[in-house]
Amino acid sequence: MAKSKQEELIGGVLERSKAKELLEKMILTRSFEENAEEMFALGKVHGTMHPSVGQEAIAAGASPALRKDDYLLNTHRGHGHFLVWGGDLNRMMAEFLGKETGYCRGRGGSMHIADVESNNLGSQGIVAGNLPISVGVGLSIKMRKSSQVALTLFGDGATNEGAFHESMNMATIWNLPVIYLCENNQYAMSMAFEKAFKIKHISKRACAYGLPGVTIDGNDVIAVYKAVQKAAIRARKGDGPTLIEAVTYRYRGHSKSDRQLYRTREEVKSWMKKDPIPRFAKLLNVDEKEIKKMESKAKERIRKAVEFAESSPEPDVATIMEGIYA
Fold first, then answer.
1. Can you give 116-172 as a three-state secondary structure string?
2. pLDDT tens track for 185-244
3. Residue 155 forms beta bridges with which residues?
4. pLDDT digits (tens, 9 = 90+) for 262-316
5. Distances, alpha carbon 2 to alpha carbons 7, 8, 105, 226, in Å
6. What is the CA radius of gyration of the chain?
7. H or E element, residue 226
């Protein structure tokens, strides 16, 4: 008997219960981002923030394909990745609000959250800033003869930075266990992909450095899971890095100061038809009633996190120099 589409996409990769967990993670991530935007509008989030609404399938699919002892090197648009990696909602919201109970004691804010204890080596405000660091992490893994891998995330704009090319080259020369995952959300700040690249797919750049490059549907959580899992197996065997281009779209602006004058509403609407959450829910045969239940659960968890953050103490000015010198 021929397998159903659901069995082909889920049965051979994930159990249904695990697949539903991924859907819940996607819903939690979106709820967190939408709430964080509200907090920003109220002036409670300091600095700026870069929402990832629309890109949830990449965060939900990538981390679960790895082991708990692997490493995560994130970007400034990485709240979802931090959450799915195992981030605590209370501490994360406290960090957003600049409170002492946050992951970085309120010093990092939205763009620089890290949790070294869980091998989450932090987000980077500098475009492509985490790519050279990933080479160092990969080299450390190799020198320790460990079977760990490092997952490194970046946007399409980062692939036009020198750090991208230098890192790809070194990681390949030294055969390092690094997974390079590019979230191609169609815009590097305000520059459309087709205006910044002559090639159709960023993954084509992999051949210049001798590593495999693959382009996947970044709005398909199972495709993301499978690609990262395959890259991890290759890395653990000692075969070196992989470049994965996950094609997706961000519904919001580059940051909260972005007026989005460079794209049309029609374009955004066309991508919303490919929204990763209802798409995956449909594949899992999860009805509207169950989705609402998941959304309510996510919102309640976030409400409690906001409550915790708002009741947390502000950092003491006397500690301003702590964590700067070692």
1. HHHCECCCCCCCCCHHHHHHHHHHHHHHCCCCCCEEEEEEHHHHHCHHHHHHHHHHH
2. 998 878 888 888 899 999 999 999 999 999 999 999 999 999 999 999 999 999 999 999
3. 183
4. 888 898 899 999 999 999 999 999 999 999 999 999 999 999 999 999 999 999 9
5. 10, 10, 55, 22
6. 19
7. helix 221-236
